[in-house]
């Protein structure tokens, strides 16, 4: 069962589970205490994951979006602003995104579109 009551916390359960992020998100969204998507994503970001830094071409390939769309998601002044979009960090002057944060964001969009 995906959402077991024996798990001490969402983080402990996610660390010990081999299920995908979509299952974790649907589990958390199923509980009344955390029905807000941004809260769910914040919880998932706290879970320990292998870290891989992605450059812009990799993010474009994974999301299927162009450079302008990717930067517009992080710009509050833009119509495409998305508060849940992962913020880049910089190595020298080159932006990088954590792969697991991009995957969490994509899984959340998938669940949102399927209305789970």
Write a short abstract of this structure.
With 116 residues, the chain is mainly alpha-helical. The chain is built from 6 helices and 3 strands.
Strand arrangement, major sheet: 1-3-2
Q: Order of SSEs, N→C?
A: HHHEHHEEH
Described by strand count, sense and barrel closure, the largest sheet is: 3 strands, antiparallel
Helix content: 40-55%
Averaged pLDDT: 76
Give the termini separation: 17 Å
Radius of gyration, Cα only, in angstroms?
15 Å
Number of helices in the DSSP assignment: 6
Determine the oligomeric state from the structure: single chain
Overall, the morphology is globular
Number of separate strands: 3
Unreliable stretches: 4-8
User: Which structural category fits the helices and strands?
Assistant: mainly alpha
Task: Note the beta-strand portion.
Answer: 5-15%
Reconstruct the topology from this structure.
Elements: H1 10-16, H2 21-30, H3 37-46, E1 53-54, H4 56-63, H5 67-73, E2 89-91, E3 94-98, H6 99-114
Antiparallel strand pairs: 1-3, 2-3
Describe this structure in words.
- The structure is a single chain.
- This protein is mainly alpha-helical and 116 residues long.
- The chain has one domain.
- Helix content is 50%, strand content 9%.
- It has six helices and three strands.
- The chain has helices spanning 10-16, 21-30, 37-46, 56-63, 67-73, 99-114; strands at 53-54, 89-91, 94-98.
- The protein has a three-stranded antiparallel β-sheet with strand order 1-3-2.
- β2 and β3 (94-98) form a beta hairpin.
- α2 packs across α3 and α3 runs antiparallel to α6 (99-114).
- The protein is globular.
